Amino acid sequence: MINLQDIRDTARDMLAKGEVRAVIGYRRGSRGMLAEPAFITDPAQADELVWDPTCFHNLSLYLVEDRKFLAHLRKTANAPIAIVAKGCDARSIVVLMQEHYFKREDVYIIGVSCEGSGVVDERKLAPRLNGIQATNAAFDGDDFVFTTAEGEKRIPACEVMADRCLECRNPFPKEHNLAFGEDKTGRKLAEPFAALTRFEAQGAGQRWDSWSRHFDRCIRCFACRSVCPMCYCDECVVDSITFPVTAETTADEKANRIKWIERSATRSENITYLMTRAMHLAGRCTDCGECERACPVNVPIRMLNNKMEREAREKFGFEPGASIGGPSLVATFLDTDPGDFIR
Amino acid sequence: MTKKRTGVFVCHCGTNIAATVDVAKVAKEMAGEDTVAFTQEYVYMCSEPGQESVVQAIKDNKLDSVVVTCCSPNLHEKTFRDNAKRAGINNFTCEIANIREQCSWVHNDKAKGTEKAIKISRSVVRRVNRNQPLDSIAVNVTRRAMVIGGGIAGIQAALDIANAGVEVVLVEKQATLGGRMLQLSETFPTLDCSQCVLSPKMVEVNRHPNIKLHTYSDVQELAGSVGNFRVKINKRPTFVDPDKCKICDHCTVVCPVVVPNEYELNLTARRAIYIPYAQAIPASFTLDEEACLGLNPIVCGKCKDVCEPDAINYDMRPETVTEDVGAIVVATGFDLYDQANMPELGGGQIEDVLDGLQFERLCSASGATKGHVLRPSDHTEPKNVVFIQCVGSRDPAKHCAYCSKICCMYTAKHAQLYKHHVPDGRAYVFYIDIRSGGKGYEEFVQRTMEDDDTLYLRGRVSKLYRHNGKVRVMGTDTLTGQNVEIDADMVVLALAMVPSKGTAEIAKTLKVGRDNDGFMAEAHPKLKPVESVTGGIFLAGAAQAPKDIPETVAQAGAAAAKVIALLSQTTLNRPPLIAKVRRSHCTGCGMCVEACPFIAIRLEGGKAVVNEALCEGCGSCSATCLRAAIDVKNVTQLQIHEMIEACLA
Amino acid sequence: MSEQQPYEPRIVAFLCKWCSSAGSDLAGVSRIQYPANATPITIPCTGAVSPMYILSAFNKGADGVLVSGCHIGDCHYIEGNYLARRKMHLTMELLKFIGVEQNRFRMSWVSAAEGAKFAQVVTDFVNDLRPLGPQDKLKKAVRT
Ligand SMILES: Cc1cc2nc3c(=O)[nH]c(=O)nc-3n(C[C@H](O)[C@H](O)[C@H](O)COP(=O)(O)OP(=O)(O)OC[C@H]3O[C@@H](n4cnc5c(N)ncnc54)[C@H](O)[C@@H]3O)c2cc1C
Ligand code: SF4
Ligand code: SF4
Ligand code: SF4
Ligand code: SF4
């Protein structure tokens, strides 16, 4: 069990000593019980930090934002930045470092282990609370405890936990400077890829029936991309509107942009976008589940990424975010890669 | 970007194209393309008048790009690019649309053929729209060569190159030059002494002012490409200074460690400090680090104590040497197929069942038995010897599918040698058929049968086992259809030749391909038999396929000639179709760096940078980059995008 | 275009210039007949095929996409086809996953010496595509 005070003390201490220029963590939000990302620079704010089952955001996104902002200001950081990271978040940070987005010494990782638990899935929780507003959520052993106007409500964690947490085998942030909580690597609350396996058991026709409905629903708001720490590209290949024009952009580069898809949110274009994104996340997505959570129209995006993750693991023995010096999935190969699909 | 003025030249190729493609329609459709300023059809575009008309049309119509819709670019891309140049425009703005091999010759429905020809042509027109004028890249050539492997192949290649005045670096894995040939006793078809012809060459290599020798060394890493390779070599320590060693042999007398002697194919033993053969080059002892009690005077130190010239140095460490060369010859040779794969023939566990090389050592005057054929188990003279051919060869189901080519000949030789050593002995040869193509080879085999009275039995041997101090040979004679049982004193297996141990690794390091059997692959089976698929790397000897000494020497000479020709140029022209980074899109993720098979990309200041001398233009980087931030010039993602569109319009 | 025209699958074929493109040349030289449905785009190596090309071809209305290169071990660039094998595997699995018929994407190894094989690969592909009918899952809706 993690003692929240330890996280707060660490943050306060490091800020006070000037060892880090900011701490990215979670604080209680304005929306009921939910936590929200917090960017703390003042030691006095350290006591605002929280750690509870609603800390679902992958904060590594803000490391990306931070770097982009510094680049925009043409500044270099004078001290590292500290970040509170769960198992999946820490793996994202590893991938970002693998891709040289920042250096190891630029980031101070305060790891938090999800231990035998995980974060809550609001969609699972809502019916259980029956419309009652909760003001606080807390871990308690195998349960989540919610404080509501009608008193405390205790629910077995597994019943309202996010699928990805149930399936997660690596709840401990292996890459860290300091870690809180027990290392329960290898725990198994549910079979990995369980939801995916269920879905895949259907025939191609049925799969298309569901996916075509999902693709039709997508409004191409790009929330999934915006919330994804791996989608840090300045220009997304399938969305040329984000094209960065900098001092060194040549006329040639401006003229030679490829319009792979149209901007209209029609099915074919949505598919091409979402499939491209899944391909781009293959071997990089660490299953933080944020894209799916952010989607306003419930497109089960995680399943696409999950599919790639499973292929990578089963066919290529690949684990995303395993180590900073590790290989990247699509830039490497093994002699044993399957080739029986090739004629 | 100003709009291109492209000329499209549609060839009829007599009726080769015109019969199944409506050429007029192709020309008309292309004329409708936005950037096409001129179209023309002609019956033979590659003929003299055809070519002239292209040149004229480019000049007259101020064209800046050309598409010729005709046969495969392998045939006339160069022709028409040269014409473009002649007409005063850049040759890389000319592209070929292949509407013959890929269209008219393979379809007979004219409507469909025409439709496809239009799609192909249109996609190439769209590609040319965005072609950049490019210049070939000239790179300086390093006038130095490397030979890997110091068997007869490597020795011959090194000498030939060095004698042409080019410096050669020869890298040999073992403690001595010589390879397998140094282990042979006498060689077919003349029965001249192997060492007597080889040793002078080894000495010549050692003394040659143009040859730098690295023995006991491995190639570790290769960077660069044709004309400019950089090779990292790991020199293992021998713990003996070759310049000081007097080969007095005092050290082996005192060394307490005894291990099997691999140079004698484990027929005898050697000490931890040893010299492979009396003729070894470099002429120096080697201390086997693994066998030695500890490289430590406190533990043993006996050899160091007795070494008068103080040549022994326990503190020697592996050394990494970097050599820059312009061309490489790979001559890493062969090994014999592992007997362990054949339990029915004893699996290597029966003492008096030998392989061919072991038998060579028994016959050799410098071998363990000083040239007396004695069987290993009891050192008696074998009176009955069975030779078995094709062991492991020509057996696609269980072993190697190919013929090892030389076993018929060396088995005949072995039978002769045996009879010369033991005139009253009996020699049997089991064979499938005799392949004795080669000058004087058939006559040699006939002599074995007739003059040396060897009994040739046609058939396979199914089983070998120990029986009353002998080896029971169970076989069949397929000519008489009878089972044959021989109690032999000794059996010699003509095992298949396989690529030498480590071939897979060295092939990977050098990035040269291997064939299905694991030998180094030549670039073309008929027309490029000594070239590897990688420019500037050549092959010689048994590393490429099983072969005997004359063939090995011939191939080594050929490889040397190729190297000399290559290195006689001061600069090489490389095609300019290489990768280019769009810096504004590159995030410096390094995935292209990881993907590039030629180590041609590095990150600098957070962006990918392509080394133009190393890039081969394969496009692996481009397909890997998530952001389309790196492209191969004139085959950019944007171009492919527009070609796809044209194919589906 | 008249409506009565029977359905003809439209294939985009990415051919490696060192082997499959040369193999298709050999099919031509040998006059081996095969259906005219595949339009070739010659690329330096299968390793240069971005998954984007596959998705884009379907998006632009291809009924099938073929990627063909050198046999494993024979890549002119040594490793390109190994990289392609992995990328194309992932692309194919993703397409299958959302319910695109498996037979719409095909990869083959065809060497410069395998003219007959090239013709066979295209013939088989066209035959496998016919029963599937036009591909409209990823195809851009045409503005009318
Ligand atoms: C039993 C037997 C009898 C034979 N009798 C005859 C005969 O009578 N007449 C005849 O013409 N032919 C004969 N041959 C064939 C002859 O041995 C070969 O043709 C010849 O040895 C081939 O020479 P090579 O240099 O290609 O290979 P090898 O002799 O195998 O030499 C290869 C060399 O490369 C070195 N090497 C290997 N890998 C590396 C590496 N990674 N780095 C550095 N160095 C490396 C090895 O240590 C070795 O020194 C016989 C063969 C056998 C097996
Ligand atoms: S999948 Fe959802 S979040 Fe992503 S663009 Fe579409 S609607 Fe937006
Ligand atoms: S989808 Fe791909 S290109 Fe777009 S932002 Fe994400 S990683 Fe970058
Ligand atoms: S893969 Fe693309 S973004 Fe990454 S370093 Fe290479 S060119 Fe830059
Ligand atoms: S095209 Fe790209 S991957 Fe290929 S050699 Fe050049 S830089 Fe390397």
Report mean pLDDT of chain B, rounded to a whole number. Answer: 94
Radius of gyration of chain B: 32 Å
- SS-based class of chain B: alpha/beta
* Helix percent band of chain B: 25-40%
Can you write the helix and strand succession of chain A as a string?
HEEHEHEHEEEHHEHHHHHHH
Number of H/I helices of chain A: 13
Give the C-alpha Rg of chain A: 21 Å
Strand % of chain A is 5-15%
Biggest interface and residues each: B-C, 51 and 48 residues
Strand order of the largest sheet of chain A: 2-1-3-4-8
| Ligands and ions found | flavin-adenine dinucleotide, iron/sulfur cluster
Range of helix content of chain A: 25-40%
What is the total tally of β strands of chain B?
A: 36
Quaternary structure type? heterotrimer
Mean pLDDT of chain A: 93
Query: Major sheet of chain B: order of its strands?
Result: 10-7-6-18-31
> How many angstroms does the end-to-end distance of chain B come to?
24 Å
The tally of domains of chain A stands at 2
**How large is the share of residues in beta strands of chain B?**
25-35%
Global morphology of chain A: globular
Keywords:
heterotrimer, B: 649 residues, alpha/beta, Rossmann fold, FAD/NAD(P)-binding domain, 5 domains, five-stranded parallel beta sheet, 17 helices, 36 strands, globular, C: 144 residues, four-stranded parallel beta sheet, 4 strands, binds flavin-adenine dinucleotide, binds iron/sulfur cluster
Topology:
The complex is a heterotrimer of chains A (343), B (649) and C (144).
Chain A: H1 4-17, E1 23-28, E2 35-40, H2 60-73, E3 81-85, H3 87-98, E4 107-112, H4 122-129, E5 134-140, E6 143-148, E7 151-156, H5 157-160, H6 163-167, E8 178-180, H7 194-200, H8 204-217, H9 223-226, H10 251-255, H11 267-281, H12 290-294, H13 301-316
Parallel strand pairs in A: 1-3, 3-4, 4-8
Antiparallel strand pairs in A: 1-2, 5-6, 6-7
Chain B: E1 6-11, H1 23-31, E2 36-42, H2 48-60, E3 65-70, H3 73-86, E4 94-98, H4 100-104, H5 110-129, E5 137-140, E6 144-148, H6 152-163, E7 167-171, E8 186-187, E9 192-193, H7 194-207, E10 211-214, E11 217-225, E12 228-235, H8 250-254, E13 258-260, E14 269-271, E15 273-274, E16 286-287, H9 302-306, E17 319-325, E18 327-330, E19 334-336, E20 353-355, H10 356-363, E21 384-391, H11 407-421, E22 426-431, H12 441-450, E23 455-458, E24 461-467, E25 470-477, E26 482-488, E27 490-495, E28 497-499, H13 503-510, E29 522-524, E30 528-532, E31 537-539, H14 549-567, E32 571-574, E33 579-581, H15 591-595, E34 601-604, E35 607-610, H16 620-624, E36 630-632, H17 637-648
Parallel strand pairs in B: 1-2, 1-3, 3-4, 6-7, 6-18, 7-10, 18-31, 20-27, 21-22, 21-27, 22-23
Antiparallel strand pairs in B: 5-32, 8-9, 11-12, 12-17, 13-14, 15-16, 19-28, 24-25, 25-26, 29-30, 33-36, 34-35
Chain C: E1 11-16, H1 20-29, E2 38-43, H2 51-59, E3 64-69, H3 80-97, E4 105-109, H4 115-129
Parallel strand pairs in C: 1-2, 1-3, 3-4
Helix pairs in contact in C: 1-4
Residues 148-154, 171-174, 179-181, 184, 187-188, 218-219, 331-334, 356-357, 360, 406, 410, 413, 500, 502, 506, 541-543, 547-550, 552 of chain B line the site of flavin-adenine dinucleotide (FAD).
